[in-house]
Amino acid sequence: MEIERKFLIDDTKFDYSKYPSKQYTQGYLCTSPVVRVREEGDEYRLTYKGGGKMVREEYNLPLTKEAFDHLIAKADGNIIKKERFFIPYGKYTIELDIFAEPFAPLKMAEVEFPSVEEAEAFEAPDWFTKDVTYDSAYHNSHMSKQKFD
After folding, report:
1. Is 59 marked active-site?
2. Residue 82, SS3 per DSSP
3. Could you report the per-residue pLDDT of 110-133, keeping only the tens digit for each?
4. Cβ-based neighbour number of residue 10 at 10 Å
5. Distance between CA 36 and CA 28 in Å, rounded?
6. Prior bond of 105 cis (ω within 30°)
7. Could you tell me if residue 142 is left (phi over 0), alpha (psi between -120 and 50 degrees) or otherwise beta?
8. Which residues lie closer than 8 Å to 19 by C-beta, 6 or more apart?
9. 76 forms bridges with which residues in the sheet?
10. Which of 16, 24, 28, 138 is an active site residue?
11. Per-residue pLDDT tens digits for 45-93
């Protein structure tokens, strides 16, 4: 089970560049339900996500590079590339995604929680601007279907 909140950020109030990061490339084979393939540095995964916004089922399976390359070629829509920064915040880790074109300059933070109660009680840092947890437009699976000129 994944319990996660998403936020837009104001990067003029916070320097994320000093934190460790990893490059991600991901594509969607299906968006309802979500079936995603992702390259995370030198790791590859196939992910299934059930319905929901803040709380949803999530299953991850390891892939080989060859399997990832085969499946990403079958992705429907936009391939999403981003750099993810890992920022300690109390007992949580903020995962800050800096999206590449065509989604730049989008910057979005995600925080995962062990319970719904903790997610609802979370006090975000002042550099978080808007809570977009319940806005489908900010789900990567939805972004993969956006049309660009």
Report:
1. no
2. strand
3. 999 999 999 999 999 999 999 999
4. 12
5. 4
6. yes
7. alpha
8. 85, 86, 87, 96
9. none
10. 28
11. 999 999 888 999 999 999 999 999 999 999 999 999 999 999 999 999 9
Q: What is the CA radius of gyration of the chain?
A: 15
CA dihedral 117, 119, 126, 21 (to 10 degrees): 150
Sole residue written with tokens 């936009």: 78
Q: Is 102 exposed, middle or buried (0-12, 13-18, 19+ CB in 10 A)?
A: middle
How far, CA to CA in Å, does 45 sit from each of 10, 11, 65, 122?
A: 30, 29, 9, 29
CA nearest neighbour of 77 among 40, 32, 134: 32
Q: CA 77, CA 49: separation in Å to the nearest integer?
A: 18
CA distance 3 to 106: 22
Tell me the longest C-alpha to C-alpha distance in the chain: 42
Asked if residue 86 lies in contact with residue 71, where contact means CB atoms within 8 angstroms, the answer is: no
pLDDT at 148 > cutoff 90: no
Label residues 108-144 b or e (16+ Cβ within 10 Å = b). bbbbebeeeeebeebeeeebbeeebbeeeebbbbebb
How many residues are there in the chain? Answer: 149
